[in-house]
Design goal:
Length: about 260
């Protein structure tokens, strides 16, 4: 695999930002690694970080590069700052950046990344799980798979950082039924009749936001969205995410 740190300018955000990118490389002479070349084009997983972190964290806290090496996929890990992957009331248009500009930039920089829906996947942890579902529900035509670990789905349940929520969403009272309400978005995409991405999520039973995943599982079941939900031992920790990102990689709908 090749690991790149990319600093680039975003027209949507109006500023420079960063991403870490893992690209397939067939390396027969590298000891201890089973690698796979991506071929003429390769699938891509957009892997989103949580609230306190940045584009480097997946590579620093997990073995994502090693786990992905045998799959022949690209993994794009962008920085989202404290945006909640949202077009902020006071801040950047991060949803537009992630949904529209970032995939285009990645294909410009790395032309072998596939533009086909069947080859594009998105996943994340905690805040990144929220972002992954928002992208999948609002842009279902772009992604074939969505995954979330310890997803922070029910943002209305957070009663801290009120000034942050005002800057991002305009206040918690603006969430319900809006484009930032995942439960509303799930209902709307189901009603639309659009093809919904394959859906996998999991959470540790000792996670302090375990109730978010339980609520999302019930809502998806009630409205008839097919999904797979795993409840495991564990908490809101990198030990959990390092173990269970492997579940997501195994479930990606790629040719193996």
């Amino acid at each position: 695999m090749a690991l790149l740190h990319v600093n680039f300018f975003s027209e949507v955000l109006g500023q420079c930002t960063n991403m870490e990118v893992i690209l397939p490389q067939q390396a027969f002479g590298q000891i201890g690694i089973e690698s796979k070349e991506g071929g003429d084009s390769y699938p891509v997983l957009y892997l989103l970080h949580g609230m306190s972190d940045d584009c480097t964290i997946w590579g620093r806290r997990t073995s994502i590069e090693r786990y992905a090496s045998s799959l022949g996929i690209a993994v794009v890990m962008p920085s989202a700052h404290l945006s909640w992957y949202t077009d902020m009331v006071c801040g950047g248009n991060y949803f537009k950046f992630f949904a529209d500009e970032l995939p285009s930039i990645c294909r410009d920089f790395f032309p072998k990344i596939s533009s086909k829906r069947e080859d594009n996947f998105v996943a994340g942890l905690s805040m990144g799980g929220y972002g992954a579902l928002k992208l999948a529900f609002r842009r279902p035509e772009k992604f074939a798979f969505v995954g979330a670990l310890s997803g922070a789905f029910d943002i209305k349940a957070f009663d801290y950082y009120p000034k942050l929520w005002e800057q991002i969403f305009g206040g918690m009272d603006k969430i319900n039924g809006s484009e930032n309400d995942l439960f509303h978005l799930a209902s709307e995409v189901k009603k639309s009749g659009k093809q919904i991405p394959e859906f996998y999520m999991s959470c540790g039973k000792d996670d302090y936001i375990f109730a978010h995943s339980e609520k999302m599982d019930k809502h998806l079941t009630d409205i008839g969205i097919e999904h797979t939900y795993g409840r495991f031992e564990g908490a809101h920790t990198w030990e959990y995410w390092d173990e269970h990102i492997q579940d997501i990689l195994k479930k990606l709908p790629i040719k193996r």
